[in-house]
Every structure is written in structure tokens, then in C-alpha cells.
Write a structure and sequence with these properties.
globular; TIM Barrel; 2 domains; alpha/beta; binds ligand LLP; 414 residues; Lyase, Ornithine Decarboxylase, Chain A, domain 1; 9-stranded mixed beta sheet; 8-stranded parallel beta barrel
Length: 414
């Protein structure tokens, strides 16, 4: 059975009706299906057998309970800040299980990560390599390192989330890579494990991934001829999900092709860093229609969730399916813009949607499990929603709704 579907025309998440959950916990509300999350995880695990490693990209959804569930199911983690590492540790994961990405890691963050015994630092520039050496030296440790290489492939995704082209700020240009690897291999406090890349996010076809993988395997070979033998190759995340139910990235096919390529390199452990593909379709954001407004040529559903709660539509013009919690309302008689309360024209959840909702009705924004809550903010002094995880008939508050006092914590009157 699907984890999120209608039963008797009421939207259900596992065995709970969404309307009942909204009544219990209020709106806006993030809901997650444990079953869907674990199904997604196990699918990757099945196509990517040990000793190859799956490092869940914490930034997609960093709620402690989500990390706890994934850690309990054998996840390793991809983190991009000391804060994310602290979350992993709090959730029962280990630093050893984590790879640390990010272009501008501070000396404090590197110190903390090395003190905790980080599994690998994904170094993004020649300058960062020198800093890691210094920090490791001052701590008297050897820093496990991978060098992030920019393979210069076009991921064919939104420009804000494409990362693997020459023009992007990420990684070391492929053309400059050899001397940086040689430098890394020569530094006394660097333990050079391998190489990594991440070409972008929400990628819907295997071609750019395979292109990048080929270039990375080629790099491994070129380094071997120089006597630098890597044992670790991290191909990043970026697996797209089908927001519009139009075509699917065939993850199984792509992964089997990579494993096939890798069979020529038995010394290599391969890593992936999926984020979105694990959590996106496990999450819904529920919002209530506060008002319907009709102008000369348009209808608006003014809802209680805005760009501060779910930023993706505003920031990337991302399209999320919006459905009525009561299926009877999913009819075709009115074309509506679903817009939020924040005082910006850019505060919308979707334009031109066919719905017949009225004031007080509930809407569900689909695929909200990834980069939903984690990108939320308090703009307009709006308290962020509660997050609730549903497991069969049970529901758990995994983050409480914020209150005004949470928002002004740390502020002082003159
Ligand atoms: N690894 C690295 C180094 C990354 O930078 C990212 C995402 C991932 C893994 C995970 O990518 P995924 O499998 O989730 O595509 N906020 C944007 C997405 C930004 C992704 C940033 N990096 C969005 O809402 O679409």
C-alpha cells in the first residue's frame, strides 16, 4: 500500500487521516511517513551493497528523529557544518560515519570535526587543504581527506543547484587536480583517502552522472600512474525525484552501471550522498485556506503557509503538487494561485492550480520532505511549523511548533 494516498476520499498518511492530524497539531504542519522514508532508504541500500557506503545528505532534512531512524538503519552521513555533525552525534550516529563537505569550512569547524574523529573531510580547494594540514598538525592527528574535483559536466538542472560546472564555486577544477593530489599525498598530517564530486541536485537523467563517474574513474587511473592509489571514491548525491509525476530517474539502472564500471577497481570503496531521494516523497506540508479572494481575472487561495515555511517555489520556481486533503475538492472548476501570508509577491506555493477549495479547507503540498523544513525561516516573525512523524496508526511530534518566545530568544532591548 502507498504511504500517502486517499481512502474514502480523505488523504491518509499511513493509517492516519491528514485532516485529523491537522486538527490535532494545527497548521501549517509538516508530516512525514516513516514507512516511505525507510522504503526509499532500503531501495538505495539494495542497489548499492556494502562495502559501498550510503551517506545521507543531512541538509535535505536534518530533524533528529529522521537522522536517528536512518542511523538505526545503517546510514552514514554527509554533513556540511559543525552544526550538522552535532545533529548526527545527538541522533546516535558517529563522526566516523560522516563525510564533511562544504566550500568554506572554518578552522573551528575543522578542529571540532577532527576532535570528534570525522570519517573524511571533503576538501574543496588547495587553500582548504593547507588549512586542514595546519589544524591536524596543531591537534597532533592525521586528517582523513578526499579532494572534491569539479568534473565540469552540465547536470541539466536549475542553475542554483548545479554545482559541477567550471563556473561553479565547488571543488577543484579537473585541470588543476593532479598537483593538489600530489601536494595532499606529501603532507605529513593528511591521510589521502580519495576523491569526490557532486554535480548538482534534482538531476533527472543518468547521462550527466555517468559522464561525471567516467571522468572520476579516469582521474583515479591517472593518479595511480603517479603512484597515488586512492581507496575511496565519492560520487555525491543529486538523484532527482518526480515532483510532477512525469518520468523518473532510473536509479537502479544508473547505480548498476556505476558498479559495473567500478568492478575494474576492486580497491575502491564507493560512496553516494543522497538527500532528496530519501526524504522528499515521505513528506507533506499541510496548510489551511484562510480566505478565497477573487480579483478581476484571478482567484487566489490565501493559505496559512508561506515562503518562510516552504521556500522552494519562491527560490527556484519549483513546482510542487498541491492537492486537497478532501479529495472531493480536487475538481476542475476553478483555477487558483495558492499564495502565502508573507508580504512579498514571491510568496506563493503554486500558480494556476485546479482546485475547488473554500475558506477553511486543507491543502497538502507534496514532496515537502526534502529541503522543506530545513530551508524554513522566521521571516515576517512567523513561528515555524511543527513536524510530525507518522508510523502506522501512531504519530510523534518530532519538532514542536515554535512560539513567539522561541523567535526572540537571544534578543535584547537596549
Ligand atoms: N552532497 C553534496 C556535496 C551536496 O552539496 C548535496 C546537495 C547533496 C550531496 C545532496 O543532494 P541531493 O541528493 O539532495 O540532491 N535546496 C535545493 C537543493 C540544494 C542541494 C545542495 N546540495 C532544493 O531545494 O532543491
Amino acid at each position: 500500500m502507498k504511504s500517502i494516498s486517499y481512502s474514502q476520499q480523505q488523504l491518509m498518511i499511513e493509517q492516519r487521516d491528514v485532516a485529523g492530524l491537522a486538527a490535532e497539531y494545527g497548521t501549517p504542519l509538516y508530516l512525514y511517513s516513516k514507512q516511505q522514508l525507510l522504503t526509499n532508504w532500503q531501495k538505495f541500500r539494495q542497489f548499492w551493497p556494502a562495502p559501498h557506503r550510503l551517506c545521507y545528505a543531512v541538509k535535505a532534512n536534518s530533524n533528529l528523529a529522521i537522522l536517528q531512524l536512518l542511523a538505526a538503519h545503517g546510514a552514514d552521513f554527509d554533513i556540511v557544518s559543525a552544526g550538522e555533525l552535532k545533529r548526527v552525534l545527538r541522533a546516535g550516529g558517529s563522526a566516523k560515519s560522516a563525510v564533511f563537505s562544504g566550500v568554506a569550512k572554518s578552522a573551528e569547524e575543522l578542529t571540532f570535526a577532527l576532535q570528534q574523529g570525522i570519517g573524511c573531510i571533503n576538501v574543496e580547494s588547495a587553500a582548504e587543504l593547507e588549512r586542514v594540514e595546519q589544524v591536524a598538525q596543531s591537534l597532533g592527528v592525521s586528517a582523513p581527506v578526499s579532494l572534491r574535483v569539479n568534473p565540469d559536466v552540465d547536470a541539466q538542472t536549475h542553475p542554483y543547484i548545479a554545482t559541477g560546472m567550471k563556473a561553479n564555486k565547488f571543488g577543484i577544477a579537473m585541470a588543476d587536480a593532479l598537483p593538489v593530489f600530489e601536494r595532499a599525498a606529501s603532507l605529513p598530517h593528511i591521510e589521502l583517502l580519495g576523491a569526490d564530486c557532486h554535480i548538482g541536485s534534482q538531476i533527472m537523467s543518468a547521462a550527466p552522472f555517468l559522464d561525471a563517474a567516467e571522468r572520476m574513474f579516469d582521474l583515479v587511473e591517472r593518479l595511480a600512474t603517479k603512484g597515488i592509489l586512492l581507496t575511496h571514491l565519492d560520487l555525491g548525491g543529486g538523484f532527482g525525484v518526480s515532483y510532477e509525476d512525469a518520468g523518473q530517474l532510473n536509479v537502479e539502472h544508473y547505480l548498476s552501471q556505476v558498479l559495473h564500471m567500478a568492478s575494474a577497481y576492486p580497491q575502491l570503496t564507493l560512496l553516494l550522498e543522497p538527500g532528496r531521494a530519501i526524504v522528499a516523497d515521505a513528506g507533506l506540508m499541510i496548510t489551511k485556506v484562510e480566505y478565497i479572494k477573487t480579483s478581476e481575472d484571478k482567484h487566489f487561495a490565501l493559505v496559512d503557509a508561506g515562503m518562510n515555511d516552504l521556500l522552494r517555489p519562491s527560490l527556484y520556481q519549483a513546482w510542487h503538487d498541491i492537492i486537497a486533503v478532501d479529495e472531493n475538492k480536487n475538481c476542475q472548476d476553478r483555477l487558483l494561485d495558492v499564495v502565502g501570508p508573507v508580504c512579498e509577491t514571491g510568496c506563493f506555493l503554486g500558480h494556476a492550480r485546479h482546485l475547488s477549495v473554500e475558506q477553511g479547507d486543507l491543502l497538502a503540498v507534496k514532496h515537502a520532505g526534502a529541503y522543506g523544513f530545513t530551508m524554513s525561516s522566521n521571516y515576517n516573525t512567523r513561528a515555524r511549523p511543527a513536524e510530525v512523524l507518522v508510523d502506522g496508526e501512531k504519530s510523534f511530534v518530532i519538532r514542536e511548533r515554535e512560539h513567539f518566545d522561541d523567535l526572540i530568544r537571544g534578543e535584547h532591548l537596549l
